[in-house]
Amino acid sequence: MTLETSALIPGLEGVPIAESSLSQVDGEGGHLYYRGYSIEDLTQGMQFEAIVALLFDGQLPDTARASEVTRQIEAGRTLTDAQIKLARDVAQLTHPMFALQATVAALAPKTNNFNQVDFNAAQARGIELVGKVGHLVGVIAQAAAGRPYDGPRPGESHAHMVLRMITGHDPSALHERVMNSLLILQADHSAANAGTFTTRVVTSTRAEPESIISAAIASLSGPAHGGANEAAIRLFVNIGSAANVESYMSDLLARRERVPGFGHRIYKVKDPRSAVIQRLADEEGLLRAKEQEFYRISLDIEEIMRERLAARGLWPNVDLFSGVVFHALDIPIDFFTPIFAASRTAGWVVNMKEQLESGNRLFRPTQVWVGEAPRPVH
Ligand SMILES: CC(C)(COP(=O)(O)OP(=O)(O)OC[C@H]1O[C@@H](n2cnc3c(N)ncnc32)[C@H](O)[C@@H]1OP(=O)(O)O)[C@@H](O)C(=O)NCCC(=O)NCCS
């Protein structure tokens, strides 16, 4: 018998779980790079589809390659009538994130024998999933709003499709551009965040890709992870106006509650994705009066947190400001995290492929036993 006696590392803090060359988080300097390119640069004029190509290929696509991946995502987003009906039915029962998780699992084939050594097949299934998950978020949004199904249009960009299906109207060029940047911004964030680590763990069991992404969606749903953008905007709604921020936050901090949108295991400075979102928030004509108020509230909260908690390393993360911009795009609050999932599916499927290519050893850590010694029943 092997006794499991290693020292516990709570949350696996500081423990490397994979070798990766996809996205790099510089927590001290406050930078995020995909394949060596900074997130600030990648969100200035590139299409989300081209970023999917970059993540898979390791280099920026030329026009032909970008068109090829765009066509693959477009072809891959097809859903059967039964899948659409299932998504619409589940949307009536539960939060959109759980509806998405359930429906993505149901996209898996009837067989359970994914050929993990065929890396091209893994890539094709992954690109398909990027298309399908975005489409499903739109289907669930239409059903939740009581609207009939109105699916993807030929030639429509991923950002346009997701936003149009969620809001029920054609986005303006500005809204499509902002949505495209948000999709890029949230596409990947190292192999070791909870959702992507989940992807790696489930991949190591040789599961089907749809099953892997469904598990990752479950992981992302929690308020300590992707769900924080929803919690942040609900906080702003509760605060109501910038005039209330000081007293509301003083009470909240006195109760030692966690402030959504602050803190990160890796970033020791302001999350670089916040700066990109703030650049988007500053786009002429994007924020209406309501969102300008939310934005003022978020800036005041940032100031209060800087004064009182910066010494403890609590800085804004991506979720403090993202909700303000989602709100400006007319996206219902319940759909902030599903959009995050649609975007992050790109990173998840590329991590799945990288995990497969690395030899894919089954994750099987150990535990520290703190229970009873073996003892007789009688
Ligand atoms: C992201 C998060 C889970 C990281 O947590 P972590 O690295 O495990 O840090 P810990 O939970 O160990 O917290 C360390 C300390 O900071 C405090 N803290 C962490 N985040 C805080 C927050 N957002 N507001 C107030 N205090 C916070 C904890 O209460 C703890 O204090 P203590 O030592 O007095 O008990 C955490 O910061 C959090 O819950 N943030 C809010 C949710 C959020 O925005 N998530 C999105 C992440 S992108």
Descriptors:
mainly alpha; Citrate Synthase, domain 1; 2 domains; 3 strands; 16 helices; 378 residues; Cytochrome p450-Terp, domain 2; binds coenzyme A; three-stranded antiparallel β-sheet
Task: Describe the protein in words.
With 378 residues, this protein is mainly α. It has two domains: 23-223 and 332-357, Orthogonal Bundle (Citrate Synthase, domain 1), CATH 1.10.580; 228-328, Cytochrome P450-Terp, domain 2 (Cytochrome p450-Terp, domain 2), CATH 1.10.230. Helix content is 55%, strand content 3%. The protein has a three-stranded antiparallel beta sheet with strand order 1-2-3. α7 (158-167) crosses α8. The structure holds coenzyme A. Residues 11, 224, 228, 258-265, 312, 314, 317-319 line the site of coenzyme A.
Q: Layout of SSEs?
A:
Layout: E1 23-26, E2 31-34, E3 37-38, H1 39-42, H2 48-57, H3 63-76, H4 81-91, H5 96-105, H6 119-144, H7 158-167, H8 173-185, H9 194-204, H10 209-220, H11 228-239, H12 245-254, H13 272-281, H14 289-309, H15 318-328, H16 336-357
Antiparallel strand pairs: 1-2, 2-3
Helix pairs in contact: 2-3, 3-6, 4-5, 4-6, 5-6, 5-10, 6-7, 6-16, 7-8, 8-13, 8-16, 9-10, 9-16, 10-16, 11-15, 13-15, 14-15
Bound molecules: coenzyme A (COA).
Residues 11, 224, 228, 258-265, 312, 314, 317-319 line the site of coenzyme A (COA).
